[in-house]
Amino acid sequence: MKIILLLTQIFLFISSAYAQKIDTVFFNENYTSISGSYNPVYKLIGNEISYRSKTAKIKIPPNLDSKNLAFSFSFFDAQRKGKFQGDIALLLDGYNDYKSSIYFDYNQNLDFTDDGPPQILNNKKDSIIISYYNSDKTRLLLRKGINFATYRDDQDKKMVEEFYLNHEHGKKNEFLDSEFWLRSYGYNSLTKEAIINGDTIPIGIHDWNLNGVYNEKGIDRILTAENEFNWLTYRLAFGGYVYKDSTIIKLSGKNYEVLDVEESGKYMVIVETDKKSKALQVGEVVPDLQVKLIDGSKKMLHDLLQPEKYNLLDFWGTWCKPCIKQTPKLLRLDSLYGTKLNIIALAHNDKKRNIEAYISKHTIPWINGYSNIEIHKAFMVDGWPTLVLIDENKQLIGLKIQPDKVEEHLQQFEEKEGY
Question: Could you tell me the CA-to-CA distances from 409 to 10, 78, 138, 244, 307 in Å, in that order?
Answer without folding.
Answer: 52, 44, 51, 34, 16
